[in-house]
Amino acid sequence: HGTRKWNPKMAPYISAKRKGIHITNLTRTARFLSEACDLVFDAASRGKQFLIVGTKNKAADSVAWAAIKARCHCVNKKWLGGMLTNWSTTETRLHKFRDLRMEQKTGRLNRLPKRDAAVVKRQLSRLQTYLGGIKYMTGLPDIVIIVDQHEEYTALRECITLGIPTICLIDTNCDPDLADISIPANDDAISSIRLIL
């Protein structure tokens, strides 16, 4: 990010300043990325559940791609407030989503009057957009991976409240102390996000 937007806590992770932009220290990035990989590998071998969060346009496709590849859950459209802290409501919405999908598969929606079918299809489409990445989630995740701490601050606060370990991809405008493992990197470049995920 530009030198005007930086967080002073990020000073140890910055190697240089060029043309008004801070350059991230890649040796620090490699060290924290290695630490995060060890944590993820250990947790995966014990069958833990992961959630990847990245809702901004540049990260959305990479987050969905990484979640499919790793067979884990993701939120890549919009973080709905209380998604984790108000889990009972989220779970109710997930059950509703599954029921509507079953009705659609069995063809029961076609038997409804046109207006009712349109309302249900709109509701199904909305649920698919916001909860599609977590449709198979049965409980709270064990580890949350967040792309762009600044953008996903609500998700990070919920994880901190619930004591869920977090791995954050942070740019020079973020606070490295908020996440359990912070990986300093450019969170605006699609190639950087995809490489780290």
UniProtKB/TrEMBL annotation:
GO cellular component labels: mitochondrial small ribosomal subunit; plastid
Superkingdom of the organism of origin: Eukaryota
InterPro entries associated with the record: Ribosomal_uS2 (IPR001865), Ribosomal_uS2_bac/mit/plastid (IPR005706), Ribosomal_uS2_CS (IPR018130), Ribosomal_uS2_flav_dom_sf (IPR023591)
Keywords carried by this UniProt record: Chloroplast, Plastid, Ribonucleoprotein, Ribosomal protein
SUPFAM superfamilies to which the protein is assigned, alphabetical: Ribosomal protein S2
UniProt GO BP: translation
Gene3D superfamilies referenced in this protein's UniProt entry, alphabetically: Glucose-6-phosphate isomerase like protein, domain 1, Helix hairpin bin
Keyword Lipid biosynthesis attributed: no
GO MF annotations in UniProt: structural constituent of ribosome
Location in or out of the cell: Plastid
Pfam families, alphabetized: Ribosomal_S2 (PF00318)
Family: Belongs to the universal ribosomal protein uS2 family.
Name of the protein described by the UniProt record: Small ribosomal subunit protein uS2c
Organism: Paulownia tomentosa (Princess tree)
Lineage: Eukaryota, Viridiplantae, Streptophyta, Embryophyta, Tracheophyta
